[in-house]
Write a structure and sequence with these properties.
This protein has about 350 residues and is of the alpha/beta class. The chain folds into 2 domains: about 5-80, no CATH class; about 95-335, TIM Barrel (Alpha-Beta Barrel), CATH 3.20.20. About 25% of the residues lie in helices and about 15% in strands. It has 11 helices and 10 strands. It has helices at about 20-25, 30-35, 55-60, 70-75, 145-155, 170-185, 195-200, 205-215, 235-245, 265-275, 300-315, and strands at about 100, 105, 110-115, 160-165, 190-195, 220-225, 250-255, 280-285, 320-325, 335. It has a 10-stranded mixed sheet. α10 packs across α11. The radius of gyration is 20 Å and the shape is globular. The structure holds iron/sulfur cluster. The site of iron/sulfur cluster (SF4) has 10 residues, from loops.
């Protein structure tokens, strides 16, 4: 199978469905570099088991000719991934130790998380689940029964998080089935979706999806994932507006990444763009120490300094909390600037 999208065999990009856009996503690093007019000797590529995947919509927001483009850096497998770094492991946040049933993780009181699917529309090089054994998780509604039974039997749970992978990679029918099954559990008050698709594949925010979400009894929270202001433009901006005009609460979480978004100015512009569309900055995360991602790590004191800088220039609601996820903790750890 060719790794080069056959753009002639499909409708013009703007008229493609999200599934068509996904089928023509870039899967070859060398072809992506050609598309961006970057010479192959400007970048040392890695031959990773976690392959490149990025939709054309996201590529259109990159700067041609710039191997250091902050969006490109998030998706391009480079040689630095192959350097082993102490402390970087396959499961940095203790996902496997928190598994209560197939596909069901619980780390915090009152909330449980479903690995709704193992697929994504993009492969983020810093992803803390890049090694997750997705093949062991449920696929059919029947496979999901043990997880659903566990949620039903535990009245302390009030919120279910649909995660993955990316839950919006499920077809509308499959997503609707799973959401409805959870929504019918009386003590579940909120359904939360952790998704990067509104950012990287905005065409996924269809009328049918919005209508299915608005039919749910429980309150819907959508947590999107944009790291850099250049992601929040064009079709992405439109998709976020569609979400914020629905009844859902829409929040953003970002990861602080060296060479991508590690400055107060970049974070401030990201927050401004999000808030102007009605998306509230929720978390800025310290990088989870997953193997292959050490080159993205920022010093521990840098995040609190950036957030302090944001507080000086933005209203409080526009400033994310800087957090780190530590395995075994009862919540995310809020990181503040140490007193001097
Ligand atoms: S979209 Fe989310 S789950 Fe998928 S690769 Fe990126 S960070 Fe990981």
């Amino acid at each position: 199978m060719s790794l080069v999208p056959d753009f002639e065999a499909i409708p013009a990009f703007e008229h493609q469905s999200w599934q068509q856009q996904l089928s023509t996503a870039w899967r070859s690093a060398s072809e992506l570099l050609k598309r961006l007019q970057i010479a192959s000797d400007e970048v040392e590529l890695a031959n990773s088991e976690f392959p490149l995947l990025v939709p054309e919509s996201f590529v259109r927001r990159m700067r041609p000719g710039d191997p250091l483009d902050p969006l490109l850096r998030q998706v391009l497998p480079i040689g630095a991934e192959e350097v082993h770094s102490n402390g970087f492991v396959s499961d940095p946040v203790g996902d496997l130790a928190s598994r209560r049933a197939p596909g069901l993780l619980q780390k915090y009181v009152g909330r449980a998380l479903l690995i709704a699917t193992g697929t994504c529309a993009i492969h983020c090089r810093y992803c803390f689940r890049r090694n997750y054994p997705y093949q062991e998780e449920p696929r059919t509604l029947e496979d999901w029964q043990p997880a659903l039974d566990t949620i039903r039997a535990d009245e302390s749970l009030t919120e279910v998080i649909f995660s993955g992978g990316d839950p919006l990679m499920l077809s509308d029918r499959r997503l609707h089935q799973l959401c409805t099954a959870v929504d019918q559990i009386p003590h579940i008050e909120r359904l939360r979706f952790h998704t990067r698709l509104p950012i990287v594949l905005p065409a996924r925010i269809t009328q049918e999806l919005m209508s299915n979400l608005s039919d749910l009894r429980a309150q819907v929270m959508i947590v999107v994932h944009a790291n850099h202001p250049a992601e929040v433009q064009a079709d992405c901006e439109d998709s976020l507006r569609r979400l914020t005009q629905s009844a859902a609460t829409v929040l953003n979480q970002a990861v602080l990444l060296h060479g991508v978004n590690d400055s107060t100015a970049i974070q401030a512009e990201l927050c401004r763009r999000l808030v102007n569309i009605g998306v509230l900055p929720y978390y800025l995360h310290q990088l989870d120490r997953v193997n292959g991602a050490a080159h993205f790590e920022t010093p521990l004191q840098q995040g609190p300094q950036i957030v302090e800088g944001l507080r000086a220039i933005l209203p409080g609601y526009a400033v994310p909390r800087f957090v780190q996820e530590l395995p075994g903790e009862s919540s995310k750890t809020l990181m503040e600037r140490p007193e001097v």
